[in-house]
Design brief:
Elements lengths: L12 E6 L11 E9 L3 E5 L5 E5 L3 E6 L5 H6 L3
Antiparallel strand pairs: 1-2, 1-5, 2-3, 3-4
């Protein structure tokens, strides 16, 4: 795996889907936030309230990266 694969996605909104064995009754199937940092061991995301969540790669099934807002969305704030 490319060591810097997530570098260009810092400060982008991401959704981290947890591996099936990490999901249980009453637990969320994913976490959302801004990609704050990452290491070879896991991902650090910033939640809407400003708190940081560390998610080890062993718990990750899928990382979805939201596309950047279009020019129109950035100009109008709609999106």
């Amino acid at each position: 795996m490319d060591d810097d694969i997530l570098e260009e996605y810092l400060d982008r909104l991401v959704r981290i889907h947890f591996a099936p064995d990490m999901i249980g009754p009453g637990l969320p199937a994913y976490a959302e936030g801004k990609l704050y940092d990452y290491s070879p061991n896991g991902i650090l995301i910033e939640e809407k309230d400003g708190s940081l969540d560390y998610i080890p790669f062993s718990a990750v099934r899928l990382v979805q990266i939201k596309p950047k807002a279009s020019l129109w969305e950035r100009l109008t704030g709609i999106g």
